[in-house]
Design brief:
By secondary structure, the chain is α/β, with parallel strands linked by helices. It has 11 helices and 8 strands.
């Protein structure tokens, strides 16, 4: 099976490394990563060549997702499966349904892991999935493939995904970014709780500010989470000051 990858950033590189063991992988990126792509057993390819594959996965920032889908649309063959990996789901699903013809299959996913947490293995990781518009048999095969690699699949609608992720990933990144701004670091005199708190830094410090900004901008439930968290924090501070 040929699979086309658009984008060889941190997540695209990680997924390509694993997928190249099972698929004939064609990878396109705006930058010249020919050496790195070949090192993982994949083939550097043009945008057009990648879009000719029966499965195409764009690993691009959410801010450029719509433009990428528009460029892909006229190049895709009938029955091609387009799989998104955005950390929000309503926005990319709506974009794909709007710009991709009805003979193009669509699967929404969100890998709940990244280059740091899944550097050595995929076993024990999770991925949110949703068959937006695809053959049931293909959806079952892909889900089984993911589970065979130790990945737990969680089927969730785009709305349910975005509600839950606003109270998990986005809140985690909000706290992590605050800790970075606070300059939280290892101390000789600390507690186990503090060391656990610092582990949050490891999940966000290598991710770009653009990712953090995009997941807040394109998830309609993010502001409510931020406001609720801030209200809770202010409530705790008020009790201390009373």
């Amino acid at each position: 099976m040929k699979v086309g990858i658009i984008g060889f950033g941190r997540l695209g590189r990680l997924i390509s490394k694993y997928m190249s063991q099972d698929f004939t992988l064609f990878v396109h990126d705006l930058h010249d990563y020919k050496k790195e792509i070949e090192e993982i057993g994949a083939t550097p390819a043009s945008f057009e060549e990648v879009c000719q594959c029966p499965i195409v996965i764009p690993f691009v920032p959410m801010s450029t997702f719509e433009n990428t889908i528009k460029q892909m649309a006229p190049l895709l063959k009938k029955d091609t499966l387009v799989v998104d990996v955005c950390s929000v789901k309503e926005m990319p699903v709506n974009i794909m349904k709007e710009h991709l013809s009805k003979d193009i299959q669509i699967m929404a996913t969100h890998p709940m892991f990244g280059p740091d947490s899944a550097r050595d293995t995929l076993f024990g990781t999770k991925i949110a999935v949703y068959p937006v518009r695809m053959e049931q048999e293909l959806y079952i095969k892909i889900s089984a493939y993911l589970r065979s690699h130790g990945i737990k699949t969680i089927e969730a609608s785009p709305e349910d995904h975005d509600k839950q992720i606003a109270n998990s990933l986005i809140l985690t990144h909000l706290i992590g970014r605050s800790l970075i701004d606070f300059d939280a670091h290892k101390l000789e005199i600390d507690t186990k709780g503090y060391r656990r708190l610092l582990k949050i830094l490891g999940t966000v410090e290598n991710d770009s500010w653009q990712l953090f900004e995009d997941m807040n901008k394109y998830n309609r439930f993010a502001k409510e989470t931020r406001d609720t968290f801030l209200h809770s924090l202010q409530g705790v501070l008020s009790r201390l000051e009373s």
